[in-house]
Amino acid sequence: MVGFAGLVALSSASCSRSADNDPMKGAAAGPAGQYRPLKVAAMTVYRDPGCGCCEQWAKRAQDAGFTVAVIDNDDMPAIKRKLGVPAALGSCHTAVVGQYVLEGHVPFDSVLRLLRARPADLAGLAVPGMPRGSPGMEMPDGSSDPIEVQAFDHAGRIWAFANKSA
Q1: DSSP state at residue 135
Q2: What is the pLDDT averaged over residues 105-126?
Q3: Which of 5-9, 14-18, 68-72 tops mean pLDDT?
Q4: Is residue 17 part of a domain?
Q5: Nearest Cα to 50, choosing from 69, 70, 72?
Q6: Domain total of the chain
Q7: Fewer CB under 10 Å: which end of the chain, C or N?
Q8: In this structure, is residue 67 part of a structural domain?
């Protein structure tokens, strides 16, 4: 495992982990070099039963190759507390993939970057709020907001992981 500093410097070309343990094993390069895993990671998505965008994000996760189980829960604040999501990063749904928590509409290239690096000091990633144009929040007119992917650790510290246009 690498720490956060190693994660920032890590590139797919310099990854020295064994291919047998690599969640990208069997992945195919997609548009603009984005990776598309081929059913290599299981993901559990917790969502409020009344939220439709959570279903859309889970569908995008399946489309990206993740094996997804969706669990409806009427008490999402309790799920977020149990999984250690900092209150400042709250969004509508919470997912678990491997040992990591994903809060909100996290883009899948960020999830794959996380899974490749497997930093021991990171608890998860979050996209606070519900930015237009993020996975599951696509707008019919194509409008989008900047997406700020935040990382957080088990102590509740928060830092920038990735910033991008939707």
Answers
A1: T
A2: 93
A3: 68-72
A4: no
A5: 72
A6: 1
A7: N
A8: yes
Q: Which amino acid is present at 142?
A: G
Question: What CATH number corresponds to the domain at position 76?
Answer: 3.40.30
Structure tokens that stand for 88 in this block: 């400042």
Cα–Cα distance between 156 and 79 in angstroms, integer? 16
Domain of residue 81 covers 41-165
Residue 23 lies in a domain: no
DSSP helix, strand, coil percent of the chain (3-state; round to 5): 25, 25, 45
By DSSP bridging, strand 42-47 and strand 67-72 are parallel
Six token digits for residue 123: 């608890």
pTM comes to: 0.75
* Structural domain includes residue 26: no
Closest to 43 measured CA to CA, from 27, 29, 24, 59: 59
